[in-house]
Write a structure and sequence with these properties.
It is a single chain. This protein has about 200 residues and is of the alpha/beta class. Among the domains are: about 35 residues, no CATH class; about 80 residues, no CATH class. The protein has 5 helices and 9 strands. The strands form 3 sheets. A 4-stranded antiparallel beta sheet has the order 1-2-3-4, with no helix packed on it. The longest helix is centred in the middle third of the chain and has 15 residues.
C-alpha cells in the first residue's frame, strides 16, 4: 500500500508589478513526485492563470530491495554450508558419486512420496511429516491447511536427527535429496543459489 504525502508551498512576489505569483502543490508516494504549478500573471486589469502539471518518477535502480527474513536466514545457512564444502549436484552426478565413491542418498521427502519412487539404495528419513497429534492446536493447523486446499498438512519431524543418526554411519558421505531441489550454485537470477524446502 502506497503512502501519499501532500504538500502545498506558496511563493508570492511583492514587486510593484505583481507579475508572477506561483504556487506549488505536490503529491509524493514512496518513489514518485507529482506536482502542479499554478502561476498568475496580473497586468492590472485582468489576471491570467496557467496550470502546468509535471511528474517526476524516481526509480530506485541504485538500491536493492530489503531482503526478507527467510532470504537472510538462507544467506547465513548458505555461508555455513559453503564453509563445510557442501555443494550441489545434479541427479547424474549423484548417481555417479553413489556408485563410485560410496555416497549414501538420504531422501528426505515424505514417506508416501518415497514409496512411489526413489533412487536405488536411497534411505528415507522424512524431514517433514504429516501432522500426527490431535490437540486443539493441531486440529486448527489441519483446518488452516484445508482452507488452502492442502489436506495432508505437514510439520517438522522432531525425530529427524535421531533417525538419521540411527540409519547412517557417522562417517558416511551423504547426498540429501528432496522434491524441491535447491541449489548452492549462483546464477544471474539467483546470485545466492536457491533454498530448497530442506534448508
Amino acid at each position: 500500500m502506497a503512502a501519499f504525502t501532500s504538500i502545498a508551498v506558496q511563493y508570492s512576489s511583492t514587486s510593484s508589478l505583481q507579475s508572477l505569483v506561483p504556487s506549488l502543490e505536490a503529491i509524493r508516494d514512496h518513489n514518485s513526485w507529482w506536482g502542479r504549478v499554478r502561476s498568475y500573471k496580473s497586468t492590472g486589469k485582468t489576471s491570467l492563470q496557467h496550470n502546468i502539471t509535471r511528474g517526476l518518477t524516481i526509480q530506485s535502480a541504485a538500491t536493492k530491495p530489503a531482503k526478507s527474513p527467510a532470504e537472510e536466514d538462507w544467506k547465513i545457512k548458505r555461508e555455513y554450508l559453503l564453509e563445510k564444502r557442501v555443494r550441489s549436484v545434479d541427479a547424474k552426478e549423484a548417481l555417479r558419486l553413489q556408485k563410485e565413491n560410496n555416497f549414501v542418498i538420504l531422501d528426505v521427502r515424505p514417506e508416501a512420496e518415497f514409496k512411489e519412487a526413489h533412487p536405488q539404495d536411497a534411505i528415507n528419513v522424512q524431514i517433514y511429516r504429516l501432522i500426527k497429534e490431535w490437540t486443539a492446536w493441531d486440529i486448527a493447523r489441519r483446518a488452516a491447511f484445508a482452507f488452502f486446499g492442502i489436506f495432508s498438512g505437514t510439520e517438522e519431524n522432531p525425530e529427524f536427527i535421531q533417525s538419521v543418526e540411527a540409519k547412517l554411519d557417522k562417517n558416511a558421505k551423504i547426498i540429501v535429496a528432496c522434491s524441491a531441489g535447491g541449489t548452492m550454485k549462483p546464477s544471474q537470477n539467483l546470485p545466492e543459489g536457491q533454498q530448497s524446502r530442506v534448508n
